Amino acid sequence: SRIPDLPSDTVAADKHKIVLGFSQLGSESDWRNANTRSIQEAAKEAGIELLFDNAEQSQEKQIEAIRRFIERKVDVIAFAPVIETGWEDILTEARQAGIPVILSDRAVQISDPSLYVTFIGADFYEEGRKAGKYLLDKKRNDPGPVVIAELQGTEGSSPSIERGRGFRDVIRERADMTIAYSAPADFTVAKGAEVMRGFLRESGGGIDVLFAHNDDMALGAIEAIEEFGLKPGEDIVIISVDGTRKAFEMMAEGKINCVVECNPLLGPILMQAVREIYEGRTLPKRIVPPESVFTEVLAEKEVANRQY
Ligand code: AHR
């Protein structure tokens, strides 16, 4: 016999639209803006209602946003934590409200990892190692010493901590390689230029290598190096992380030597995870997107393929 049509309000109740509260940490870099676009587009595509908040690099604002999501009783909360520490209390509030939490892009340091369901994002330690390996290879016939300057990202953030650690663990192999200059430059072009100007002044231009924790800071540093009368990519080897189109253009011009890719296009993976959590499925604790390393040799060919 024919199944009777359901009353329309029953159909609507069955078709509950999943609500995701997402706290983005800021808009400091081209990578970040690509990450935001990817999340917004993927939510639309997946039919997930996205409540989006930009915390402008403030942990306090992120905590406030997450608290608002809890009050709104969203189905799932995801956030990209600006720094690693200080999340226990707000994650406990989310758990008490029965709302599952996903970490997107960056990691947190917490004593109870069950406070989040899964962490979707790059392996920053491995990115630092890849940068170090490139440098060892690039300088394999250079007797040294090799003076390195490092532009760190946001102080206390997981990409900055882990990229720095991975890089050091690899270059340690060569005792004549020293990181003589290292300071945070907040992952921005302007700060990258400012901090690099300081390094160049202090060293009198005696820097062989720059390791920038992201492309935006590398672009700022290139400005500073040129102002100082040196040739980026020749007088100073430049290694950067992210893989933005602008960095590829610089690499094609020979001003950046190597870019370690960090994939910002996390939106589709995130939406799939949100749906699976909502449906009660179990997810792996760690999800890492695929990533590559690019050097000058491939830059020109690859530039047109960059999606961000
Ligand atoms: O957390 C990822 C990092 O944050 C990217 O490398 C950087 O560009 C961004 O600001």
From TrEMBL:
SUPFAM superfamilies: Periplasmic binding protein-like I
Keywords from the named record: Signal, Sugar transport, Transport
Domain Periplasmic binding protein residue range list: 22-277
Record-linked Gene3D superfamilies: 3.40.50.2300
Compartment list: Cell envelope
InterPro entries assigned: Peripla_BP_I, SBP_2_dom
Family: Belongs to the bacterial solute-binding protein 2 family.
PANTHER family from the UniProt entry: D-ALLOSE-BINDING PERIPLASMIC PROTEIN-RELATED, GALACTOFURANOSE-BINDING PROTEIN YTFQ
Protein name listed in UniProt: Periplasmic binding protein/ABC-type sugar transport system, periplasmic component protein
Gene that specifies this protein: txxe3820-ytfQ
